[in-house]
Structures are given as C-alpha cells and as structure tokens.
Write a structure and sequence with these properties.
Helices cover 62% and strands 10% of the residues. The protein has two domains: 312 residues, Up-down Bundle (ABC transporter transmembrane region fold); 218 residues, Rossmann fold (3-Layer(aba) Sandwich). By secondary structure, it is of the alpha/beta class. The protein has 21 helices and ten strands.
Length: 586
C-alpha cells in the first residue's frame, strides 16, 4: 500500500475531485439505506391498515431518496473520472519526464516495450482502480456497518443469520485475493513480452518481408500471445471465484432468513414488513462484501502496476549536472587521460582500457577499428552519454563532469550510428538542431550535408512529410538530414559515428569538403572507409578497446600493419601494401 500512497501524491489539483467524489458516495449510500426502512413502514403500517395517504406519503419519500441517490451518483461519476484520468495523466507525464533525464546506462535497465507498458497499461490499471474502485471502497464499508446496525435494530435474532455467514464469505475472499496477488505481476511481465515482439516485428517489417520470415514472426507472436493468454486465464480463473462464493453465501443467507423469518411470522413474533426490510439489508450487506472483494482485487493488481511505475520513477539517474556547473565550453579541444570504461559495474572486462588521447581544438580526427573495438563507446564519453569508469575526459580543457549537461551537449554535436528522424516535416526535424533557425540557415545546413539536391526535387521542399521514423526517405537521405540537423547546432565538437556509410563516395567527398570549411570546430569521424579519414589531421586506430596507433595517413601506412591491412584491402586489392607483401619483401 505504501507504493499506492506515494503515487497518490501525484494527484495534485485532482485531490479535491477525489475527496468530493468520496463525499458524494457517502451521501448516495445514506439515501439508499433509508429506502428499506420506508418500505417496511409501507408494508407494516400502510398496507396493514389500508392507509392509502400514508402509503403515498412514504412512496414519495422513497422516490425523493432514489432521485437524490441518482443525482449524487451521477455527480460522483463526473468527479471520479476527472480524478482518475487527471491522476493518470500526471503519472505518465512524470514517467516520461524522468525517462528524458535518464542516461544511456539507465535506459539499459529497461526494455523499450516495458517502458511503453509502464506508461500505458500500468497507468490504465491505476486509473481503473480509482474510477471503478473509489465508489465501492467508500460505499461498501458504510453499507456494511449501517446495514448490520439497521438490521439489528429491526430484528436482532434474524441479523444473527448473516453475522454467521459473513465470516465464511470473508475467509473465501481472503483466500482468493492471496492466491491472485502474485499473479498480477507475472501478467504485466507477459504484456511486456508481447509488446516487445509486436514492436520489434513492426519496426523490422521490411526486413521480415525481404527475408520471407512472416511465418516465423507469426510463430513468435503466437508464442508470447499464448503465454499472455495462459497467464491471464490462470490469474482470472482464481479472481472470478469471488462471484460464485458471494452467490453461495448470499443465497444460503436468504434461504435461512426466509426459513427462520417465516417461522417467526407464523408464531406472530415478526411482521412481514420487518422480514422484507431485513432481507433488503442482507442483500445490501452481501453486495457490500462483494464490492469489497472486487476492490481488493483491483488494489492487488494496482499494487503490481504501482511497483512497476515506481521502478521507473525511482531509477537512480547516474548522470546529472553538478551544482553550479560551467555554462560555457571555451573551445573544442578533447583530451582522454587514462580513461577506462565498462558498461556495468560487475562486468569482468573493460570496453575501453587506458586510453590517452589529445585532440587540439579545430583538428579533424579519423577513428578506425574493427567491429567491437569500442569506437562508438569512445566518442559517447565526450558529451557524457556515459561517464568514464576511470580516468578523465576533458572538453575545452575542463573535465566534462564539471559542465552543466545541457551546456556540454549543446557544444557537442553527434550524429549517431543509428540515424533517427521523427514523425513530421523535414523542417520540424531540422529545427531540433536550432529551433530558431531561419529558412536560409536550414537550406545552408542542407547544402553542407548535400541534402539540398533531393529536397529541391520534392514538391514541398522543407515541408515534406517524412512519415513515422523517416520512412519516406532512403537511408542515405536520412543520414544527410541527420548531418544537416547536427550542423544547425553550430557545435564546437562535431562527431560523425559512421554517419556516411549509406552515402556514395562522391557525395561523401562533398560533405567532407563542406565540413573542412567549418572554422574552429573539432571534428571526429568514425568510418569504415579509409577514404573518409585519410585526409584528416590524425588517425586513431582502436583495437579491443585500446589505442593501437595514432598518426597521419602517411606515417601509419609506412609503419602500422593494421592500417596497412585496411588500406590494402580497400585501395590496392590486398597485395601491394599488406603484411603479406611486407613478408615477401623480407
């Protein structure tokens, strides 16, 4: 319950609606509880004495009570809905804002599908708990206490019948709730797995069709769908037992009351109206117990969802801005001083080990290395997407941990290996780099990235709709738009993480020429093609997370076997300058 109490703190301005809703339920319940007393008077006094005015008078009173109960019930529905959906909206906003502040290492703790479920399905469970559970949560205890009290007042002997039956129902419902409670957590995890398969299948639908793997994906979906179905069936198999248990006890109580009440009427110690009133209260009491059991089931499921939501909100954000962090990055100089890094504290090996590297401001540096050599990891330490495990990373001569995060990342432009465009227009995507950019600035960035050539052919130019994730443009066009977006930031450090891999060599050469004209910008270029880096000021070769060699194209070609191998395989067919050729010469 502590988790739910914490989340109730997000009610904010909707707390008033929740309180008003609860008060309206109390008023509605009071009106309904008066009706059986009036009905008993009609039968025992009005009908018995054939007093028509008395019957009409009591009937009008019953009608007024029913009407007032209806009005208060409708008002409750309005306030409860506002409280539930307003509360859910605030929790979703808080989760989304929290995720935006996550570092990459925080995001590694959650699957995307799980985060989606926690912001949608789990929040919906909480909303349903308020919308469907507030009324019975307030109403049921009041009806239970007042129903028992009024029935005892009408006839204490008959009231003993359901006082005996009620504990039996309570024991059954307690067993059901205790059995179902742990199953709701497993149910939500099954929803996570289903969402993960759906998300992956839809994101990669083109690859699925290209490899004719539709049947395989259908089998994957069927497996997780069947798992969710089985989990749901097992969960609700026990959850629905509260209804037959309630009916069994209710009908048993009704039969016993009719039996004992009938005998008392025959003996003259009980009137028909009293029996009718007691039966009405019995039904209300049993119904209140049923409502309480449903509330417990809702709360049980809500606790599982609340726990998952709080895992998102309580995630310890590992990268934060220091108090009074530096707001200005003086230049684009980058230094790595004895830097080592591993993604998880418990990892046995470092992804980067003992990196020492000095990049003066304004230099252009190429980074080469095989798959898994930690090229991307190296550049992600510069804008503090991750923090170095050991050693120091400096930008502009200052430790990156001393900068305000927003200031640092504004000064570092990075085109990630995985290009991402958002739904909307080209203009909207480009303005991520600079929200205040004019059309002239947008076109200038597009020309530098060689994106203008295909944008000018599009009827709507900058207002062309890219579709979800940029599906309306090719891979090379997407890369060029991402480069243009980053150029609009006017960063002091510009990082290209293999971001021209889908661009032809002629276009890549034009982009390199445009980049070389950028003054006072440090450029780091991760590439697979040696032509992308051979004209840079220095080339860094990484191997297994360590710096293997640093030098110019000419010096590395003369002395470094790895660089010779790369050059030979790409430029000379592998015979003239590779290690094998060197051995032959020897």
């Amino acid at each position: 319950m502590g988790d739910l109490k914490r989340l109730l703190g997000y009610l904010g301005p909707y707390r008033r609606d929740l309180i008003l809703g609860a008060l309206l339920v109390l008023v509605e319940t009071a009106f309904e509880l008066v009706i059986p007393v009036l009905m008993a008077d009609i039968i025992d006094v009005g009908v018995a004495q054939q007093d028509v005015p008395f019957i009409l008078h009591k009937g009008v009173q019953m009608g007024i009570c029913a009407l007032l109960a209806l009005i208060t019930g409708l008002l409750y529905a309005r306030f409860a809905a506002r409280a539930a959906y307003g509360w859910g909206a605030r929790i979703r906003e808080e989760q989304f804002a929290r995720v935006q502040n996550y570092a990459f290492s925080n995001l590694d703790h959650f699957e995307t599908s799980s985060l989606v479920t926690r912001m949608t399905t789990d929040v919906t469970v909480l909303q349903n708990a308020v919308n469907g559970g507030l009324r019975p949560l307030v109403r049921a205890p009041v009806m239970l206490v007042m129903g028992i009290g009024l029935s005892m007042w009408m006839n204490a002997e008959l009231a003993l019948v359901f006082l005996v039956c009620t504990p039996v129902l309570g024991v059954i419902l307690f067993w059901v709730v205790r059995r179902v409670a742990p199953m709701y957590g497993r149910l939500q995890k099954a929803v996570d797995r289903l969402n993960n398969v759906v998300q992956e299948g839809l994101t990669a639908i083109r690859a699925v069709k290209a490899f004719v793997r539709g049947e395989y994906e259908e089998e994957k979906f069927a497996a997780v769908n069947d798992e969710l179905t089985d989990t749901s069936q097992k969960t609700f198999h026990y959850a629905v037992l509260n209804l037959p248990a309630f009916q069994l006890v209710m009908y048993t109580s009704t039969v016993l009351l009719m039996w004992f009440g009938g005998n008392m009427i025959l003996a003259g110690s009980l009137q028909v109206g009293e029996l009718t009133g007691v039966l009405s209260y019995v039904l209300q009491i049993m119904n209140s117990l049923m409502l309480i059991s449903n509330v417990f089931l809702l709360l049980t499921r809500s606790l599982a969802s609340a726990r998952r939501i709080l895992e998102v909100l309580d995630e310890d954000i590992v990268l934060t801005s220091p108090e009074g962090g530096a707001e200005a990055v003086p230049d684009g100089g980058v230094d790595f001083e004895n830097v080592s890094f591993k993604y998880h504290a418990g990892a046995k090996e470092y992804a980067l080990s003992g990196v020492n590297l000095h990049i003066p401001a304004g230099q252009t540096v190429g980074i080469l290395g095989g798959t898994g050599s930690a090229k991307t990891t190296l550049v992600q330490l510069i804008p503090r997407l991750y923090d170095a495990t050991e050693g120091t990373v400096k930008v502009g001569g200052r430790d990156v941990r001393e900068y305000d995060l927003h200031a640092l990342r504004d000064a570092v432009g990075i085109v990630l290996q995985k290009n991402v465009l958002f739904s909307g227009t080209v203009r909207g995507n480009l303005k991520w780099g600079n929200p205040d950019a004019t059309d002239a600035e947008l076109w200038a960035a597009c020309r530098a990235a060689c994106a203008d050539e295909f944008l000018e052919r599009m009827p709507r130019g900058l207002d062309t709709d890219l579709g979800q994730g940029g599906v309306n443009v090719s891979g090379g066009q997407k890369q060029r738009l991402c480069i243009a977006r980053t150029l609009l930031k006017r960063p002091k450090v510009l990082i290209f993480d293999d971001s021209t891999s889908a661009v032809d060599t002629a276009t890549e050469a034009q982009i390199r020429a445009a980049l070389s004209a950028l003054p006072n910008v440090t450029k780091l270029i991760i590439a697979q093609r040696i032509t992308s880096v051979m004209n840079t000021d220095q080339i860094v070769i990484l191997e297994d997370g360590r710096i293997h060699a640093v030098g110019t194209h000419e010096s590395l070609l003369e002395s470094d076997p790895i660089y010779q191998e790369i050059y030979a395989s790409q430029m000379k067919g592998g015979e003239e300058h590779g290690p094998s050729a060197q051995r032959k010469k020897a």
